[in-house]
Design brief:
The structure is a single chain. By secondary structure, the protein is mainly alpha-helical. It has one domain. 71% of the residues lie in helices and 0% in strands. The longest helix has 29 residues.
Length: 138
């Protein structure tokens, strides 16, 4: 299997895939990035959790953006896609809860917004895509 970096960059771009899912995934990714940049030192576990959210957003974007004839990382009906969507919702809440800082509000607000956006993506994607197209979950 040949991996072409140019194809990956095209799939990560805003022009591929469904616009609604792209906007929600980009919002989760950039809110996680803002949280990661605002996070104080000596918070290894929250940092790893937020990095996991960013990784899950990239995997979800690459999985949803593939065209006809291409093989996605995770298909729409796979259990792994559900887990990736749950990670984008749960990990920011866990990171906000275990964060150790004197001024938490600066970091916690973007984390909670990231969790809310992740929950909206998880629930709407489950309701409109996975619940409709996947016969094993009906």
């Amino acid at each position: 299997m040949n991996v072409n970096v140019q194809e990956i960059l095209v799939l990560l771009g805003p022009g591929s895939g469904d616009l609604v899912w792209n906007i929600m995934i980009y919002a989760v990714f950039f809110l996680a990035l803002i949280s990661l940049l605002l996070m104080p030192d000596k918070n290894l576990l929250p940092t790893l959790l937020v990095a996991g959210v960013m990784f899950a957003a990239v995997v979800a974007k690459l999985s949803l953006s593939v065209g006809f004839g291409q093989r996605p990382i995770l298909k729409e009906c796979e259990f792994g896609m559900l887990i990736i969507n749950i990670v984008m919702f749960i990990f920011p809440l866990l990171a906000a809860g275990i964060l150790r800082a004197k001024k938490k509000a600066k970091v916690v607000i973007p984390l909670i917004l990231c969790a809310i956006t992740g929950f909206l993506f998880f629930f709407l994607y489950w309701l409109l895509v996975q619940n409709v197209q996947c016969p094993m979950w009906a």
